[in-house]
Hints:
The protein has 487 residues and is an alpha/beta fold. The protein has helices at 3-27, 43-56, 64-67, 89-97, 137-140, 150-161, 166-169, 171-177, 188-206, 250-272, 286-292, 294-310, 318-323, 345-362, 444-450, 474-482, and strands spanning 30-37, 71-77, 110-119, 125-134, 279-284, 329-334, 369-374, 382-388, 391-399, 405-406, 409-410, 416-419. The chain has 3 domains: 8-135 and 273-377 and 470-485, Rossmann fold; 144-267, no CATH class; 382-450, no CATH class. Strands 2-3-4-1-5-6-7 form a 7-stranded mixed beta sheet, sandwiched between helices. A 3-stranded antiparallel beta sheet has the order 8-9-12, with no helix packed on it. It is globular and about 70 Å long. It starts with a helix and ends in a 5-residue tail after the last helix. It is 38% helix and 16% strand.
Amino acid sequence: MTGPVSRLADQAKLSARALLEYGQHLLHPTIRLGVTGLSRAGKTVFLTALVHGLLRGGRFPVFEAHSGGRIAGARLSPQPDDGVPRFDYERHLRALIDERQWPESTKAISELRLVIDYQSRNGADRTLTLDLVDYPGEWLLDLPLLDMSYEQWSAESLKRSREKPRDGLARSWHGHLRMLDPLAQANEAEAIEAAKLFTQYLRACRDERFAMSVLPPGRFLMPGDLEGSPALTFAPIELPQLAERKSGSLWSMMRRRFEAYKDLVVRPFFVDHFQRLDRQIVLVDALAAFNAGPHAVRDLESALTDILGCFQVGRRTLLSALFNPRADKVLFAATKADHLHHSSHDRLEAILRRMVDRAVNRAEFSGAAIDVVALSAVRATREAIVARNGENLPSIAGVAAAGEKAGGNVFDGKTDVVVFPGDLPADPEILFRPGEMSGPETSAAEADLRFLRFRPPHLEMTGEGVPALPHIRFDRALQFLIGDRLP
């Protein structure tokens, strides 16, 4: 089912469920908080730190209800959606604290319900239910496909693939394209090969040397149980401008499968999950884009524009819940702030704000509270000063992850190292101009020295059990996302 009929059915389902959820919300105040970000942005770490901090009692001076002593405690509760996997908080926490390994990346949607007991400012005992929804950012970037035809998506994807540095990564796929006739009889082998080469191109774009962000369709990079299905066996092809599509042609096959992808993958996510979110945090690995160069930075900005375009934003009321459910707060967070000295944190935040402000101006977006923050949900480093050539350099220290390289050394995951990560520019525009930042042509040694990966910190156990996780500005994110709901 596609087109206007499908949209009407989606809206009817949304309206019926929204009315029920709105009534439940009046009796039991609840926030559905979406946590997303592109691959390696730190979604799992963020969620684990959030839950642990509220359960354990983290150090959150900016989180007013917590620092003011009004939060009595928090507890886990069974999640509301029986068909969604539970976020495996306990396993991820063991990885962080016991094994000192970063948890596995998010590959599918998951949920966790946390109930916060607190005292209002007037002294009344209350509860706030926090439903945490973890999902891959690649799924979010699929939502614009709902308003696109196969022909539009194909043309846009091909145009993007011919821009630098994507053009060099797309050579094999482009070579196969030249052998395809869109008007010829559909051939399954040709479709499979086109989809395979297109997927290889997307994976190459995501490699940290290039760090491209706009890579739909998202399930091509994380197919799950749909791997090998016709819904994932399509690709953009060169379409003749003046010809008509023929029944049974390769063009018709690709178009049908593109629509199937939207019906089976994108639309259910939109209806069942995305449109139900009250608040949203989007985690951004901006450092990876900086390291890859101006092309990656501009691509990240395009991704933020697409993300903002997904949100129909404004205050949540009964009418809006019935007819246009929408998030009323969106926070963009530049993660891994602990990979930089604190003197660059404000600059990292300013660069992200510049990206978001420009994305807001380009996207159809209005009415929500939007903020940006540079943070580290779990701080893996400490600060140090290194003397070099008579100059004191603001540096960071920590245990380098196994296999990391710097200065000709390969680390074993046990060695404490001190590195000077460099200073971010005071003028954000420098990052968008070719020739003024390192990029894929930079040597591996130079790139690793700038953004070395560290293991999670060693935490001394206390008499009260597991200690609080160190962080940077994590409490500021909590204050923005849920502080106003703890009056």
